[in-house]
Design goal:
The structure is a homodimer of 454-residue chains. The first copy, chain A, has helices at residues 2-10, 12-18, 20-36, 39-50, 58-73, 135-140, 163-182, 223-235, 286-305, 327-338, 365-373, 375-378, 396-402, 416-419, 432-452, and strands at 78-90, 96-102, 105-111, 113-115, 123-132, 149-152, 188-192, 218-221, 238-244, 247-261, 266-276, 312-319, 342-348, 356-362, 385-387, 405-411. In chain A, a hairpin with a 2-residue loop joins strand 2 (96-102) and strand 3 (105-111). Chain A folds into two domains: 2-88 and 250-452, 3-Layer(aba) Sandwich (Aminopeptidase), CATH 3.40.630; 92-245, Glucose Oxidase, domain 1, CATH 3.50.30.30. Chain A is α/β, with parallel strands linked by helices and 454 residues long. In chain A, the strands form two sheets. An eight-stranded mixed β-sheet of chain A has the order 1-10-12-11-13-16-14-15, with helices on both faces. Chain A binds chain B through residues 10, 30-31, 34-35, 40, 158-161, 163, 196, 198, 355, 357, 380-382, 384-385, 412, 414-415, 418, 431-434, 437, 440, and chain B through 10, 30-31, 34-35, 40, 158-161, 163, 196, 198, 355, 357, 380-382, 384-385, 412, 414-415, 418, 431-434, 437, 440.
Chain lengths: 454, 454
């Protein structure tokens, strides 16, 4: 088997002969999506008519109704809702940060900031700023922290070709930076936004308090303002005020929206495709993850439109709560486990609606070889590689709990962190053809997994 | 040799061992560009301080001075200007088109249009519109053409994954559509803009008259207006007026701007890297081809910055006139031929400043195998393939006249025709990291060609 896979890898011509019917079907899928795709119009509805939809918010409830309706109208054999409790964090108003004095001299310089998701605040905190490059500097200067607002200047490493690599390296400042400073007596924390954008939009995103330390307010500052703050910190002492009002309301009822195309041969074996329905509150959740939502619906619509009848049952899932809790993904895996379902493969789109370049997978070596043997079938549509970087967040519980093979669409990454969790994540920053091509590659992969198994 | 190449292709691990030093040098090039790249700031200067720069225009003259200065400041061993006469077409004012009556009833519906480059006009032409899908329909209905304005609805085929393929298929309507209609007595021509953009911007670009037929005015209409015109044509007779004032002024003196890094071993053998300095008049020429211009300067800057001393002389060329004459590229090849220069390879960037995906080449089979053997070195930076689709327009004459191997950067194509020749081709639509990564991949390729020859 391994030897055969290797041979397949090395001989694309042979593969093409073997999979001739498949290339015809995949072209049919592609034509259907590129000619008649509804994903862009659906995204318009979700971003403009529903808007930002943080778990627990009224817009989130609206998104669930919208998703159920869209699934029903686009070919589902059945649609059901899977109830789960979701957190309900509220920003509580406009966030604000102002440099109020420099070297003892009063000033008033507004910074463009957003409170971090899950952070708590109840008004204004004012204090001198201790600006540090990173955690190492924080540790070296821990005796200076008490009573100050700590600013972390840690940013993306521009030399990384992959911005996701940079996000992986720097994300810890958003998640853990507040408590690490609170430990030494900080009154508040500001981080450099996790982006390399040339614009000044601040980028929010989830943080998590360590319950052992005071829960201090935490904000992210736009990258151009961050540059200014960092420069200022080198030559002056300065104080700032930060005003935030983040708080938690009681958990509320949310739902995964699940549609099915029933399998003809193995109706009790499942392939899952999904994206997450929730988004941050400060934007339209276009690339994060409106595009994943409409990819999911589009793939179902297209398979139905070309008359494809899957062997396995394909589930199309709009997950309830990825951003600040993962409750939807956890619920989906729990239900699957409780019902002893067999899950072949679960694929997510949660890295933006940009031109597809491939897929990252969390699969066995034999499965990886099988995926790679399909490259010649997918490369005409943009898939250039299968990497071993694991699946999306929402399908992670299914992998951990049931051992399912998982994957995630890997679109071009360069623009993702321009919009990720920022007010710029709006419909206008999604390109129709890039969006549709993502659905093409995902649908083709789902077709191959359904036909050949794993 | 061929066998060896095949082996190299199949064994990336072997290749990595062989080229270990190269991967270190390429990482150094990449780090230099991604950390310290000047391309984005240079593009800002070219687009915002020089602006649109059609050959012959005052802005074009300004662009030449700017280019020479930028080359000198960014590490050239020498910079020289290569004189060539360039055409001087002028739009002559704002273009206009209005639907003035529908089924005999007066109306006034402005369409968003641009005169095609090189087209002639001297005021307003009003006539009934004959809308045809394509040349086939024009031929079938040739008896109806006389005295009318012909509208061609031929658009991009959305099922093509490659928009450049669509451009190749449909570009003939822009280039030859006017004369093909004039042949049958048309008074004017309007084409659907060559784009799949969801915006309504019209897209200009070069056309060419057939001297055997009257030189009638010709415009392109924005795609949303095109949809409306096409729908209207199915249910009503309508007349429109089109106002254009395109005309030619006498040819003027232009220049290729040429910088060199002198070769240490083979100073009389040349490798060329270039982009074109001219652009259309209706935008900032950001992706077409400001990004090619700043790629060119950036590659030179980066090679110099890391202390790389090339074996061959590397020429960095800002070509004078690609858009409506190719005079710069022709001149460059003529001079090379007159001086009996040996040209190894000429690489252009003229497909936009989007994330690089590979290169298209016009090379021999043995050379192609050599390029492909370098894939493992380039793939970490985005290059996924070398295709055989030929080099850029400006390096074409060098290939035809001297048999030089040629190539062109192949960036992601999906957004290119959103901006190509339209008013949306502005600095704001270029992403800094995507731009820099193009320079990284090109510089790495130039380094490999310089080191190993072809």
């Amino acid at each position: 088997m391994k030897k055969l896979s290797l041979l397949l890898l090395l001989c694309p011509v042979l593969v093409n002969a073997q999979y001739r019917d498949d290339s015809v079907t995949i072209k049919k899928i592609s034509d259907e999506i590129l000619r008649n795709g509804k994903a862009y119009d659906l995204l318009y509805q979700l971003t403009k008519q529903v808007g930002g939809r943080l778990a627990g918010s009224p817009q989130f409830a609206k998104a669930i109704s919208w998703g159920k309706d869209a699934m029903e109208k686009n070919g589902a054999d059945q649609v059901f809702l899977q109830q789960c409790m979701v957190p309900h964090w509220s920003r509580g108003g406009a966030d604000k940060a102002v440099i109020i004095s420099v070297d003892g001299k009063k000033t008033s310089r507004n910074l463009d900031v957003l409170a971090l998701g899950n952070s708590l605040g109840s008004g204004t905190v004012s204090a001198e700023v201790l600006a540090v490059a990173d955690f190492d500097e924080l540790e070296r200067r821990k005796d200076e922290v008490k009573g100050k607002i700590v600013y972390y200047n840690a940013g993306f490493n521009p030399a990384n070709v992959s911005p996701f690599k940079s996000y992986g390296e720097t994300g810890i400042y958003r998640r853990s930076g507040p408590s690490r400073a609170a430990r030494y007596g900080a009154l508040g924390v500001m981080i450099r936004s996790l982006t390399e954008s040339t614009a000044n939009n601040p980028h929010t995103g989830a943080m998590q308090y360590n319950d052992s330390f005071p829960k201090i307010p935490a904000i992210a500052v736009g990258p151009r303002d961050a540059d200014e703050v960092w420069e200022l910190s080198k030559k002056a002492h300065f104080t700032m005020s930060m005003t935030t009002n983040g708080h938690f309301l009681p958990d509320t009822v949310g739902y995964n929206v699940v549609a099915e195309l029933r399998g003809t041969e193995f109706p009790d074996q499942y392939i899952t495709v999904g994206g997450h329905l929730d988004s941050w509150d400060v934007n339209e959740g276009a690339h994060d993850d409106g595009t994943g939502v409409v990819h999911t619906i589009e793939i179902m619509r297209a398979l139905k439109a070309i008359g494809y009848r899957p062997k396995h049952t394909i589930r199309f899932v709009l997950f309830a709560n990825e951003e600040n809790g993962l409750r939807g993904g956890i619920k989906y895996a729990e239900e699957a486990k409780a019902k002893n379902e067999k899950h072949l493969f679960a694929l997510e789109s949660d890295a933006g609606g940009f031109t597809p370049r491939g897929f990252s997978l969390g699969v066995s070596a034999a499965q990886l070889a099988k995926f790679r043997s399909w490259l010649p079938l997918l490369s005409p549509y943009g898939t250039a590689s299968f990497t071993e970087d694991g699946g999306g967040a929402d399908v992670g519980p299914l992998q951990r709990q049931l051992g399912a093979a998982v994957g995630e669409l890997n679109p071009d990454q360069q623009r993702y962190f321009d919009v990720h969790h920022a007010r710029s994540d709006v419909f206008e920053n999604v390109n129709k053809r890039e969006l549709l091509l993502g659905a093409v590659n995902m649908a083709a992969l789902i077709y191959l997994v359904d036909k050949y198994g794993l």
